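Hi, here's the filled form for the chain we discussed.

Project: internal
Contact: R.S.
Residues: 216
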Amino acid sequence: MKNTYQRIQVYLRGNDFIYQLFSGALLLLFGMVTSVLGNQHATAHMGASVPDIFIWGVSSQNMVSYYVGTALTFLIAFGLLIIWKPRAAPFLLFALGAFYLVRSGFIVLNTPGFPEGIVGMETASPFIKKYFFGGDLFFSGHAGAPFIIALALWDYHKIARMLFLAISVGSAIIVLVGHYHYSVDVVGAYFITYTVYKLTQRFFPRAFEYFKQAFV
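And the returned structure, exactly as it came back:
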């Protein structure tokens, strides 16, 4: 077993792109696992709702179908981007993995209850409730995940950048109108996501080089 593991290591390091791709996928998997665990912790320890001036000023609407739809749209768009530009895949996987890993840390630090006036959760299916209405409020994954992809594409492909930026902004509007997030969850997502993106560039330079080559 040990010899097999060593042979895999040698192969991956001799094929740098595959090594970067495999490492990025592992980081994304780890980030998603920690996010799920963080969500479970936050859901189990949710407190009371807290005041939010912006939420108070917005009449809540049932946005569940749009809430789920934007997440699916992001997943499809991300998958198509990877298929279209496979050399960009390692860096994008690292970026999303780092995003979810950092987000999982914030999730367990801040566990307020749902915003007042939340609409649609009571009629949602058990599956939707479990995966879309947990205690992982800060910061918004719906707004942040598409935004980090938009940041990566910012200087390299205008149309793709605008697509992911539109998904991010659309998601932000939906979660606020539905009262699925506090306003600070959305605003904070953009600042934190930008920082995570810059750190990803710094810590994964080889993957970023492959990313840039994909758009030459």
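Let me know if anything looks off before we file it.
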